[in-house]
Write a structure and sequence with these properties.
This protein is of the alpha/beta class. It is built from 19 helices and 12 strands. 42% of the residues lie in helices and 14% in strands. Helix 6 crosses helix 7, helix 13 crosses helix 15 and helix 18 crosses helix 19.
Amino acid sequence: MPIASEDIDQNGLVIGVSPERFREVAMPLLFDHLNAQCEGTIAVNRQARIVWINDKYAEKVGIRDPRSVLGKEIEEVLPASRLREVVQNGQPSMLDLMAFGDEHFVVTRIPLRDEDGTLVGALGFVLFDRARHLQPVMAKYNQLQTQLAAAQRELAKARRARYTIAGFIGSSTAAGEVKRQARRAAQLDATVLLRGETGTGKELLAQGIHNQSLRANGPFVAVNVAAIPESLVEAELFGTAPGAFTGADRRARAGKFELADGGTLFLDEIGDLPLPLQAKMLRVLQEQEVEPLGSNQVKALNVRVIAATHVDLEARVAAGQFREDLYYRLNVLALRLPPLRDRHEDLPVLIEHLLDDIASRSGQPPLELAEGAQQLLQAQPWPGNVRELRNLLERAQMLSEAGPLSAESLRTLLVNPLPATSLAATPAPMTGDVRPLADSMAAAERQAILAALAACNGNRTQAAERLGIARASLYNKLQVHGL
């Protein structure tokens, strides 16, 4: 089929022209256009020696005779040039800033190949002699950088510890000793193990230790080991390599250890860590390096670990459910948080603090308690400790009407309430022989176990939870006391 004359231009480009013919015609046109429009053009050979420079470039860099620089290595004439890299790796550098004296040129660099594809040199073009031509691009870049910085600040804020050691409310001897030990732990950088029943404030104290340590400006990352499905614990803690398993991200995913780098990682319910992962956890703690799931490379870390548990770790070690070496690695600085029933004198100030906090969050005036209601609260054993107390006060705040809340109204919210008269009175002076302390403690422990079993209708699992110990530990104590 004949081609119409309008389909042919003065350079012989025809619709459907072959790639070879297109390159033959178009490349000289492209070079002539760039050479004319750019602020300067230079070419080097495979040894990065100058083989050609146009008059505009020579004049721009102060060369009177362009022929005088032919054969020189490119760095002799343009010290900041990267044309040698283009010749060596064969990869273009499409947009860059090159310094020359006090000026900066916007440049592009492309490799030169012959018809066989062999690399023979490289071309450099000065697109602009002033970076102001890139102002729209730079403005967009700066905007994106500002947004990224704002997002990073918000993320850092979310990983910032909120509580201080002073937030552990109480002036009793037991509370004072806990805060003293926590301040001492904050001065050190060793692993800390917080032990205590559920709801005693272990995470609050962990945040307080972090905030008073040298890592206070670093991230505080908290993870509840018991809340993660067993199949995902390794990925959550140690991260994953791209495509580590079916359904995994195509990109690498940082684990909690990596997110806490430079700061503190709080591992709550460490006693529930699956046994197969305990060896990997031990290695991370000892070597301060982590190997993501599906990767064969390790990443160096600088993380302080604060672990917490409400279970009897010694019993789990004895039962073969927890590695002994990991137990010793965690149990460097151990703090035991007292249950609420062991610091009843702290209840009035703790109740007042909780009521004020609940009121500020709900936007309602603080709930007032009648004197009988205060006494009723002080009589309770609080197996759920501060968490249980707060839950009760929140429900009381929602259900209460005008006026102080009476003991009768409060009693309806309690599960198996003890009467206010059950408050322990000051013991009368002992007469007769004094029993050995070990015997007295054993008798008290036996009585506490009996009381828990009675309250739970003989259910040993529930009794162990009420006592704040592991079920295996309860079985051991039952045997010891002949129960």
